[in-house]
Amino acid sequence: MAPLLAALLLAVSPPPIRLAPLFTAAGAAAPGGARAAAASAPLVGIRYQLGPLGEGHGPDPDPRLRLDAFDCVTLIETAMALGAGRSEDEVRRALDDIRYGQVVELADRDHEVLSQWIPRNLEKGWIRPISRQLAGPATVEATTVYDHARWSRLAKRGHRLAGVPDLKLPLGRFAVEVVPPAALAAVEPHVPDGAVVWVIREDRLDQLTRVTHGGLVVVRLGRRWVRHASSWPGVLRVVEEPLADFAARQRRASSRPLTGLAFFALPDNRVRLASLPALAP
Fold this sequence. Notes:
There is one protein chain. The chain has eleven helices and ten strands. The chain is an alpha+beta fold. The strands form three sheets. The protein has a six-stranded antiparallel beta sheet with strand order 3-10-6-7-8-9, sandwiched between helices.
């Protein structure tokens, strides 16, 4: 291969998958949230890239698994897969199951969090809602209604779910339980290790989603931190910051009011993982 061509291929291709250091970091952590938090610790500092994962073919040929770049969603998904898998094959199968409805196709990917990612992963058992368990009567319900008229208006503004035909657009009322900002200080000490947290903002009909960011809560020395892939200028990498600082930053980050944070625990999903079909060679 010509040296120039080899250099170009190296520049655009992700490096080899090396999961061994992540499995070592996981150690004897219990499957689920604790293992997801421990195994993803070495990913802190990895660069931010919007949409780094794809189907490996078709309209989005990006790889289905990579460890050299993340956005907020793919970091969460990869950590979840690490929380269950103990080999590359298992991590890949888990990640596919977390990211897609039934088939690995762009049209069946979980693009929008509130109407696709959350309900599908609740149904599969990858996540369990804990906002009400944490905040009790302070919990609020955040809802969004998607109908054909809304999707049509969004399309005219250039907001679409990539590759999703009209017949597969999510329709209906979708809800998530949220811990409001005023209740966060009280619930923080009780958030479990490895919990997924989504940032929920005010619903606006001209916006594609009210979920604007997400991360993984990790417990260290009794404190709760949020591990997330930050797109902030000058940061652009996987970082950790105290949960209180994360919430305060989200309140300042946009003129769109912050409804609160939605928390989900990661159960032990080894039984579901064992039921998933083997990957094609």
